[in-house]
Amino acid sequence: MRKFYCNDNGFIEQESWSPHCWINVACPDKEDVVFMLDDLDIPPDFLDSIADPDERSRVEHDGNWRLTILRIPMKSSGSQSPYITVPLGIISNNEILLTLCYHDTHLISDFIDHTRRKGICVNTETDFIIRLLYSSAYWYLQYLRDINKSVTQASAQLQKSIRNNDLLILQRLQATLVYFNTSLQGNDMLIGRLRHVYKDDCDQDLLEDVQIELNQAISTVNIYSDILDSTLGSFASIISNNVNDIMKKMTAISIVLMIPTLVASFYGMNVEINYGNHPWVFFAIVGGSLCVSYFLYRLLKRFHWL
């Protein structure tokens, strides 16, 4: 699906393409691919690079064409991780400015609404890229707040009862933080690249604000990762301690039951036993076994084995 926007105190949608307008393509179909390759003559390698889900943030040139790739966050419906990062490509030349993403994300629509509310006029391609980076940093921080809430809820549930489902939730959130950290580091390097290459063609104050937001997001990811590592380590220790405590109690119970079992084994042999015909010998044996077992029980209880 492709849409066309003109810049008039915010991006306003228009019906067709015109030079210097912004073309946004999300989840492209065959018609969109034909439009980009045949009508706009975009290099096919650019589309292949953006389609790669593991593509890193970078800037590439091919003649008059420029490709800028940044990593943006999005919610995931998969079971591996609740949030992932995907590449967003910005393709441009002297007359064309196109963004391409093979996933449907909230970032672009929120970016457009923000420019309309604030009446933002984007004058250069570099400022456009920087503002998209700014928007991505905002969404990283937003999703990090959601992750923190999920960690808090899962930890609260684990304090009541340790369940595998809650541990799996924390594990998936930990994987999400790894994705976020890698992508944020790549975007931060992209900021340094833009600062070096387009230092005379960008708003330095805006670039500084984006750098601050990205650094805040990176710091937040590192803090949450440390907290999550500590939480998982603590619960792993608790689980191990609970298993050891259960094994200790089972061993103590086995020791207590060993005496009656041992006595019964001796008196169950087919040999002559003194007082074997006495009418009270059975009750004496059972009573003696129970007394010894009770003594062992009190002894183990004293040493906190039971």
Unreliable spans: none
The helix content is 55-70%
> Mean pLDDT, nearest integer?
84
Order of helices and strands: EEEHHEEEEHHHHH
Distance between the amino and carboxyl termini: 67 Å
Description:
It is a single chain. The chain has 306 residues and is α+β, with helices and mostly antiparallel strands. The protein is built from seven helices and seven strands; from the N terminus they run βββααββββααααα. It has helices spanning 30-39, 44-51, 107-118, 125-160, 164-197, 204-267, 281-302, and strands spanning 2-7, 11-14, 22-26, 58-62, 65-75, 83-92, 97-101. It has a seven-stranded mixed beta sheet, with helices on both faces. A hairpin with a 7-residue loop joins strand 5 and strand 6 (83-92). The radius of gyration is 34 Å and the shape is rod-shaped.
Which features characterize this protein?
306 residues, alpha+beta, 7 helices
State the gist of this model.
The protein has seven helices and seven strands; from the N terminus they run βββααββββααααα. It has a seven-stranded mixed sheet with strand order 2-1-3-7-6-5-4, sandwiched between helices.
Helix/strand layout:
Layout: E1 2-7, E2 11-14, E3 22-26, H1 30-39, H2 44-51, E4 58-62, E5 65-75, E6 83-92, E7 97-101, H3 107-118, H4 125-160, H5 164-197, H6 204-267, H7 281-302
